[in-house]
C-alpha cells in the first residue's frame, strides 16, 4: 500500500487552495496526497487515523496570540481556523509518532504547536544584517545558501554541508523547545530548518523544496524521498 499523506490547505473567503507543486512532490515519490480541510471537532481524530504522514504547506501569517504576543505592525493576514486545525492535527500526529514535514509557514506552525515561538517580521525584529529572505526571483530559483549542521537527520539525508535554497518569507522560527533542534541556518543566523530528536521523522524547512524539484535539485529530492519512506514505515 502506498502511504497516505495529508496536505494542509490555505483558506481564503471559504475557498481551500493548495499549490499543485506539493501534490506532485508527494505523488512523484510514491505517496497518495489528500487535501485536508480546516475543520474542528472529532473529525480531526478520524483524519489523523487515516494518515501515514502530514505535509504542512506554506501560506499566510500566524496568529501571534498563539505564542502570547500582540500583533506586530508588519503582521500580514492570518487565518485562525487554519492555525487551530493544523495545531490540533500536529499534536495528534506527534502523539502517534507519525511523520511530519513542515514547509515555510508549515515549519513555523509546527514550532508553535510544540511550544516554540517566532519572529512576526524578521526585518523589524531580528538584530542581524539580514539576507533577502523574500526573493524576487522565480520560485524555482535557489537564491541563498544554508549551512546544514553536522550530526543532524537532515545532514544524513542530504549528505551535504551546504545547500542552496529559495526563500519566500518575512516570518521565521525564533526559539525551539526541548526535544527539537536546529539543523540548518542561513549565514545571517536565521533558522532554516529544525527537527525532532525523539520522533522518527519530524522536520521543518523554511524554504520550498517542492519548487526546486523542477530543477532536479538533489537535496530536495533526498528530503522528499526520505519523508515518503518514513511514512511507508
Structure description:
The protein has 233 residues and is an alpha/beta fold. 30% of the residues lie in helices and 22% in strands. The protein has helices at residues 20-28, 43-50, 80-95, 105-113, 122-125, 153-158, 209-212, 218-232; strands at 4-7, 10-12, 15-17, 32-35, 53-56, 100-103, 118-119, 144-148, 162-165, 172-173, 180-186, 191-196, 202-205. The strands form three sheets. It has a nine-stranded mixed beta sheet, with helices on both faces. The chain has a two-stranded antiparallel ribbon with strand order 2-3. The longest helix is centred in the middle third of the chain and has 16 residues, at 80-95. The radius of gyration is 16 Å and the shape is globular. The termini are close together.
Q: What's the multimeric state?
A: single chain
Secondary-structure element series: EEEHEHEHEHEHEHEEEEEHH
Distance between the ends:
11 Å
- Structure classification: alpha/beta
| Count of strand segments | 13
How are the strands ordered across the major sheet? 4-1-5-6-13-12-11-8-9
Shape: globular
Mean pLDDT: 96
User: Beta-strand level of the residues, as a percent range?
Assistant: 15-25%
User: Approximately how much helix is present in the residues?
Assistant: 25-40%
Low-confidence stretches: none
Q: List the total number of helices.
A: 8
Radius of gyration: 16 Å
**What does the largest sheet look like?**
9 strands, mixed
Amino acid at each position: 500500500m502506498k502511504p497516505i499523506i495529508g496536505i494542509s490547505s490555505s483558506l481564503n473567503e471559504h475557498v481551500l487552495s493548495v499549490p499543485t507543486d506539493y501534490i506532485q512532490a508527494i505523488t512523484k515519490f510514491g505517496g497518495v496526497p489528500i487535501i485536508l480541510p480546516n475543520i474542528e471537532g472529532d473529525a480531526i481524530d478520524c483524519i489523523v487515523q487515516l494518515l501515514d504522514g502530514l505535509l504542512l504547506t506554506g501560506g499566510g501569517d500566524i496568529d501571534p496570540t498563539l505564542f502570547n504576543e500582540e500583533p506586530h505592525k508588519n503582521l500580514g493576514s492570518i487565518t485562525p481556523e487554519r492555525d487551530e486545525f493544523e495545531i490540533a492535527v500536529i499534536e495528534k500526529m506527534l502523539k502517534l509518532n507519525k511523520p511530519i514535514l513542515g514547509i515555510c509557514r508549515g515549519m513555523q506552525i509546527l514550532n508553535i504547536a510544540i511550544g516554540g515561538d517566532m519572529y512576526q517580521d524578521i526585518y523589524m525584529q531580528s538584530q542581524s544584517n539580514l539576507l533577502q529572505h523574500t526573493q524576487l526571483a522565480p520560485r524555482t530559483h535557489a537564491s541563498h545558501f544554508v549551512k546544514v549542521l553536522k550530526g543532524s537527520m537532515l545532514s544524513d539525508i542530504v549528505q551535504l554541508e551546504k545547500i542552496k535554497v529559495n526563500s519566500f518569507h518575512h516570518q521565521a522560527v525564533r526559539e525551539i523547545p526541548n526535544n527539537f533542534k536546529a539543523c540548518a541556518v542561513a549565514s545571517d543566523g536565521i533558522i532554516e530548518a529544525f527537527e525532532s530528536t525523539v520522533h522518527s521523522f519530524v522536520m521543518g524547512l523554511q524554504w520550498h523544496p517542492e519548487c526546486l524539484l523542477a530543477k532536479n535539485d538533489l537535496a530536495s529530492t533526498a528530503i522528499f524521498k526520505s519523508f515518503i519512506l518514513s511514512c511507508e514505515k
